[in-house]
Design a protein that fits this description.
The chain is α+β, with helices and mostly antiparallel strands. It has ten helices and 18 strands. A hairpin with a 2-residue loop joins strand 5 and strand 6.
Length: 388
């Protein structure tokens, strides 16, 4: 049996309680306790004599509890057997924590459910060495930060999740605003946890919630970020969602060729209303005001206003007739200004690239150079290619 003459702390610096490896001493052994430490003698499950910083010779006068328990005499060298624990009483500020599973929270403003995660750190200090040894340490060799987190894991997560959920639900705090409340949340959780830690001889010096965030790959979070980015863009550009929808519809219409596209495309230069109905109303009204008056009149009214020449006999006939009264030939009515006859469906439509009725191409173009062919021409005016 080895009797230790010197008893001092030889463990690492980041632990709360460390058990001296030897258990056999005598009343001449030297006990050395450093600053911010305490040494507690432990025997048969009981915390006995306690020593603060200093150097001690373990004579019977300064170990009265041990002396009575093991019946040590007052004089002479007396061996005894017990355990010695060194308690580190400095403040440990960097105990990290995080929620291992997400907290499903419905955002107060956007009403979507986000799986929230939180993380942070806290600081503790041992204030009652005997209570720590009896309540938590027991017979283990060391009690460090990892052991502390393991023992308090359930208490920490329950209080943290409960308090954060309360801030979102009860106080109607949006996820986008939650980081402005981190100090308030940290103080509230500390207040709830302080009494729990103190039951085990530990003072909760401070508690900090550093981040409350959802997973970056969560679909709801990705959708919300895109929507907020679009909202910020519209705010900078000076329009709202309804106006953007009107822009998109008119832009698609303007991209299509033809008279219908021209009418719709005209709206792009007009002032946009605050709703889609007003927008289309203004577009159509403005576009129709540019259509020639002859287009707006019926064919009968246009024919009755003038006489036309029969192409067969040259006689002048009324524009309301369909056949020449002199030779019986069919009267080919001249088309009003800005109007053409579709070669495919035969309808008289406004001049343009495509027929308003069937969508067929109205104008002829040179197969070689792409220039527009004048009606009746046999050769292209630009390159001289024969018109087929």
């Amino acid at each position: 049996m080895k009797v230790f003459d010197v008893i001092k702390y030889e463990g690492p610096n980041n632990i709360f309680a460390w058990k001296f490896p030897g258990e056999d001493f005598n009343t001449l052994s030297q006990l050395i306790v450093a600053e911010s430490q305490e040494a507690v003698f432990f025997k048969d499950g009981k915390a006995l004599d306690l020593f603060g910083a200093g150097r001690y010779t373990l004579h019977t006068q300064n170990i009265p509890l041990i002396r009575r328990l093991v019946n040590l005499p007052f004089n002479g060298v007396s061996p005894f057997h017990c355990s010695v624990y060194f308690i580190n009483k400095v403040v440990s500020m960097d105990v990290l924590w995080e929620t291992s599973s997400p907290i499903p929270i419905q955002d107060a403003i956007y009403k979507i459910i986000l799986p929230i995660r939180a993380q942070g750190q806290f600081g503790v200090r041992v204030v009652d060495s005997k209570k720590l040894l009896i309540q938590l340490v027991g017979t283990i060799q060391t009690f460090d930060q990892g052991t502390l987190r393991k023992y308090f894991r359930g208490i920490l997560l329950t209080n943290i999740k409960d308090y954060i959920a309360t801030q979102f639900v009860k106080n109607q705090v949006s996820f986008l605003e939650i980081h402005a409340h981190l100090k308030e949340i940290s103080d509230g959780i500390k207040e709830q946890l302080a009494e729990e830690f103190l039951r085990y001889g530990i003072e909760l010096v401070h508690f900090a919630v550093n981040e409350i965030i959802p997973p970056e790959d969560d679909p709801s979070y990705i959708q919300l970020k895109k929507a907020l980015a679009k909202k910020a863009e519209m705010s900078v550009m000076g329009y709202d969602y309804q106006q953007e929808r009107a822009f998109n519809v008119l832009d698609k219409a303007a991209a299509n060729e033809g008279v219908a596209a021209n009418i719709m495309g005209a709206g792009m230069g007009l002032g946009m209303g605050v709703n889609l109905g007003n927008t289309f109303g203004g577009v159509m009204s403005g576009a129709m005001s540019n259509v020639p008056q002859s287009v707006q009149k019926s064919p009968a009214e246009s024919q009755a206003q003038s006489l036309i020449k029969c192409k067969s006999c040259g006689a002048l006939v009324s524009g309301s007739g369909k056949f020449c009264p002199e030779c019986g030939s069919k009267i080919e009515m001249p088309l009003p200004d800005g109007m053409v006859k579709c070669p495919k469906c035969g309808e008289v439509v406004p001049d343009g690239k495509f027929c308003l009725e069937c969508g067929a191409r109205l104008e002829m173009v040179c197969a070689k150079c792409g220039a527009k062919i004048v009606p009746g021409a046999k050769f292209c005016l630009e390159c001289g290619t024969r018109v087929e």
